[in-house]
Amino acid sequence: MFSVLGVKSLIAANMESDEAAAYANFIQNLVNKSTVSKKGAFCIFGNDSVARALINSAGNEAVSQNLEEVQRKCRAVYVSGENATNLKLYLSGMTRGKILTISAFEEFIANGGMIQVGMGRREFELTVDVKLLHAAQIKLDTLSTNLIIN
Description:
Layout: H1 2-8, H2 10-13, H3 17-33, E1 41-45, H4 49-55, E2 61-62, H5 67-73, E3 74-79, H6 87-96, E4 100-103, E5 115-119, E6 124-128, H7 130-135, H8 142-145
Helix pairs in contact: 3-4
């Protein structure tokens, strides 16, 4: 499974800067418009091109693989694809902590993430694990729910 993740995660890592900036802008807006019960920063976990674009936004904070730090600091976390090691463990801990998890790599939902962002024919599309969002008491705004494809 890791080898598949390694290949698929290259998508976000190799995006052109304009495309990565568009993803980052969309993800930032999605997080800002979501209703999350937990207080804290929008945290960035990893170093793909989308993560680098997000970390340059005001108020966003880079975090390490320390789950306690993430649970203490973050209300939402963007997870880059190169963080495949122990991903399910971290994501389940974030879900228990009611932290919104979001990414742009293909196997994110299958690994326990909440929202996976992808590009459709003309606009962004979302694959969402509704059960995880509900369990964490997280709600998306109406415009975002219209982009859900699953």
